[in-house]
DNA sequence: GATTAAGGAATTTTT
DNA sequence: TTCCTTAATC
């Protein structure tokens, strides 16, 4: 910025360090901010938004792309706190994920994209099922011919689309064991695409793909670009080639774009994300300025020392020298436990101890590689009445009963939605896959009027239920029914089925009640569905409704879902080889390196205290028959070099099976027991 | 043609 | 364990 403008600069710019300030006050044109962990990336983006608005940019003409909706909201709230006292103008900023933004834009430009604007969205499960269906129709059964599973098929498809790469290359590089099926896969994918178009549905990848495709027309690219004076992108290291293509397309009129990221934290390669996007940014957007943020405000220096050592093992990265002014503090601890039970005990013990020292539960987080790794901890927390929220892992929306209910709404929104029909119909006794498929065809032949399901002939036993289902559809399509009322109506039909269908109807029923409550916040069914699928509730307990607002709870999270977060105390559990790195990801050097970055992301979430724990012994839980166990090894990422910065704690030698393993308390007890004889 | 019983296989990360 | 497919029955 030129000096003569500084008189007009807002006073809050003083709250930034020189590099942050450079980024925030940068003029027009492309800007790349390489921001190390904890260097105030969120702050910089938020202040940039505030700055732009203060400089007179219309908030409605700013697009802020983030990884989750929550991240966008937090930034915008922060931006409005910075600028105002007055009205939160930031509410008008377009903020959200790429997918949610795609959804919003595609509704507006549906015609241009060759879509009908009432399209519905297939989530991953639906997409898998559709592929599974097609695979089955083609007679490619997985078992005997060992054809790739439907999950794998979708993963291959997705990688091809997101990476903008030919199928052949994807197979060769990432799925070599499926190489021999290239022809069949190509044909499945062809049908998959045709089927989606015929049915007016988009999968997650399509949202990006259609957006990108619209932009390939110069006229439309100009039109879309002209909606936004500025585009800001967070977590740029986790975008994929198609997203980079979209951004280029969106900058037809001007090149005001700011991307922020850290190559050391790139952890979404499995989704096609590539660090290349960051590296290539300067060549893709000519004249780009680069700003590096290297002062870490988050972690105390002993923790930073450890994280710097961990990431130093990465082969390919931008060198950054992260430093912290937060001197003092404890060195991280690496705790070897006997088994998972002891690990749970230890973590809970430390959590409570920090809690007593004044750190609320919500400022502490337990992180792990995979969703199921917190299962035993969750049981123990529940038993002890310690409240927690879990992020990542199995999501609410994927639960069968929720999908059942949502499928009715999807039919109402888009009667062509084959997967929704298929699901709803099979709820009826006497209707299986075969009948359901024919019923779907019948409805299509009758012009996709949902009422046409009445005229489909089924076996006598199913007739009454089918008529009832048709009645539900009639009712919820009525104009004066809001989403919550629609769900209430569906439940009249569905609740009795739920009782019959599932073992634990009580818990499932509660989910449906939460769903109805969430729906009450929406006026339109379309928005409700889109939000549910694109910005789903992040924590399983977000759904328990908001009964206690200021309640405190411990955070459990997969490392992926912990991205962007920070906590006073962080526990990284299951730091054993096989889990970190995951056994699934040790195929190639690239994969292992991604696991290393994942570890780095986990460790850099910590502000004051960092505990890394791993159990020596794992029991085979998934086999009821074998009660065997296996010995684990400490994660390979904690090399001797790294360990020079970490204190080791050994709990595995302690005797007894189920005593609490607090070290301090342990010595205390030993003392007291000795004392008993000293009198 | 639908449902159920039985057998077999495999377990990541997310929009 | 859970999910999924296949074979046997209704």
Key terms:
Rossmann fold, 18 strands, 679 residues, disordered C terminus, disordered N terminus, 26 helices, 6-stranded parallel sheet, single chain, alpha/beta, 45% helix, 8-stranded mixed sheet, 4 domains, DNA-binding
Structural class: alpha/beta
CATH topology of the largest domain: Rossmann fold
Number of self-contained structural domains: 4
**Anisotropy-based shape:** globular
CATH superfamily of the largest domain: P-loop containing nucleotide triphosphate hydrolases
Largest sheet composition: 8 strands, mixed
Mean pLDDT over all positions: 85
The CATH architecture designation of the largest domain is 3-Layer(aba) Sandwich
Distance between the termini: 78 Å
SSE arrangement:
Blueprint: H1 18-24, E1 31-35, H2 41-54, E2 62-65, H3 69-83, E3 94-96, H4 98-108, E4 120-122, H5 124-137, H6 142-145, H7 150-162, H8 167-174, H9 182-198, E5 201-203, H10 204-214, H11 218-225, E6 230-233, H12 241-250, E7 257-261, H13 276-284, E8 289-293, E9 295-296, H14 301-312, E10 323-324, E11 333-339, H15 340-356, E12 364-368, H16 375-383, E13 388-391, H17 400-413, H18 418-425, H19 433-445, H20 460-477, H21 483-501, H22 505-519, H23 525-534, E14 554-558, E15 567-572, H24 589-603, E16 606-619, E17 629-631, H25 640-643, E18 647-650, H26 663-675
Parallel strand pairs: 1-7, 1-8, 2-3, 2-6, 4-5, 6-7, 9-10, 11-16, 11-18, 12-14, 12-15, 13-14, 15-16
Antiparallel strand pairs: 16-17
Helix pairs in contact: 1-2, 2-3, 4-10, 5-7, 5-9, 7-8, 10-12, 14-24, 15-16, 17-18, 17-20, 17-21, 18-19, 20-21, 21-22
This protein binds a DNA duplex (15 and 10 nucleotides) through helix 4, helix 10 and helix 19.
């Amino acid at each position: 910025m030129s000096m003569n403008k500084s008189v007009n600069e807002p006073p809050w710019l003083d709250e930034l360090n020189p590099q942050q300030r450079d980024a925030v006050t940068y003029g027009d044109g492309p800007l790349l901010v390489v921001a190390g962990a904890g260097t105030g990336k969120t702050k910089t983006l938020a202040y940039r938004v505030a700055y732009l608005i203060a400089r007179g940019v219309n908030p409605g003409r700013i697009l802020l792309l983030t990884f989750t909706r929550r991240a966008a909201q937090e930034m915008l709230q922060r931006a409005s706190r910075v600028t105002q006292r007055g009205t939160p103008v930031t509410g008008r900023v377009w903020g959200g994920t790429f997918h949610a933004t795609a959804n919003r834009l595609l509704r507006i430009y549906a015609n241009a994209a060759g879509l009908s604007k009432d399209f519905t969205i297939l989530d991953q499960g639906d997409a898998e099922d559709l592929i599974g269906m097609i695979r089955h129709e083609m007679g490619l059964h997985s078992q005997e011919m060992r054809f790739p599973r439907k999950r794998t098929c979708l993963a291959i498809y997705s990688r091809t689309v997101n990476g903008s790469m030919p199928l052949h290359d994807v197979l060769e590089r990432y799925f070599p064991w499926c190489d021999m099926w290239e022809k069949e896969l190509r044909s499945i994918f062809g049908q998959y695409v045709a089927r989606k178009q015929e049915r007016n549905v988009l999968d997650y990848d399509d949202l990006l793909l259609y957006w990108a495709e619209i932009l390939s027309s110069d006229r439309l690219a100009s039109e879309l670009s002209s909606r936004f004076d500025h585009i800001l992108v967070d977590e740029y290291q986790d975008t994929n080639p198609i997203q980079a293509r979209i951004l280029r397309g969106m900058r037809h009129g001007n090149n005001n774009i700011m991307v922020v990221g850290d190559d050391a934290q790139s952890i979404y390669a499995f989704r096609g994300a590539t660090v290349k996007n960051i590296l290539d940014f300067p060549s893709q957007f000519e004249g780009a300025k680069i700003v590096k943020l290297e002062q870490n405000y988050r972690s105390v220096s002993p923790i930073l020392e450890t994280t710097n050592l961990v990431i130093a093992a990465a082969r390919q990265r931008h060198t950054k020298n992260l430093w912290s002014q937060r001197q003092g503090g404890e060195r991280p601890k690496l705790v070897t436990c006997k088994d998972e039970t002891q690990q749970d005990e230890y973590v809970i013990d430390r959590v409570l101890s920090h809690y007593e020292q004044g750190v609320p539960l919500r400022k502490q987080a337990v992180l792990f590689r995979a969703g199921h790794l917190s299962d035993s901890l969750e049981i123990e927390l529940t038993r002890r009445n310690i409240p927690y929220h879990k992020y990542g892992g199995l999501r609410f929306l994927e639960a069968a009963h929720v999908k059942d209910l949502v499928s009715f709404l999807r039919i109402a929104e888009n009667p062509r939605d084959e997967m929704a029909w298929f699901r709803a119909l099979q709820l009826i006794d006497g209707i299986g896959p075969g009948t359901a498929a024919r019923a779907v065809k019948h409805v299509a032949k009758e012009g996709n009027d949902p009422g046409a399901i009445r005229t489909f002939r089924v076996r006598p036993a199913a007739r009454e239920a089918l008529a009832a289902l048709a009645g539900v559809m009639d009712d919820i399509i009525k104009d004066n029914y809001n989403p919550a009322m629609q769900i209430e109506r569906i439940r009249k039909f569905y609740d009795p089925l739920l009782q019959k269908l599932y073992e634990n109807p009580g818990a499932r029923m509660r989910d449906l009640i939460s769903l109805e409550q969430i729906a009450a916040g929406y006026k339109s069914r379309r928005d409700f569905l889109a939000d549910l699928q694109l910005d789903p509730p992040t924590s399983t307990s977000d759904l328990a409704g908001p009964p206690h607002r200021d309640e405190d709870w411990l955070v459990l999270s997969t490392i992926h879902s912990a991205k962007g977060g920070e906590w006073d105390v962080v526990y990284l559990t299951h730091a054993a080889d096989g889990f970190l790195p995951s056994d699934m990801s040790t195929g190639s050097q690239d994969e292992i390196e991604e696991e290393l970055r994942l570890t780095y992301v986990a460790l850099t979430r910590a502000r004051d205290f960092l505990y890394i724990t791993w159990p020596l012994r794992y029991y085979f839980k998934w086999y009821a028959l074998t009660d065997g166990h296996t010995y684990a090894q400490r994660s390979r990422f904690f090399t001797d070099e790294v360990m020079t910065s970490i204190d080791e704690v050994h709990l595995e030698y302690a005797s007894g099976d189920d005593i609490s393993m607090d070290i301090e308390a342990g010595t205390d007890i030993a003392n007291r027991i000795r004392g008993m004889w000293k009198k």
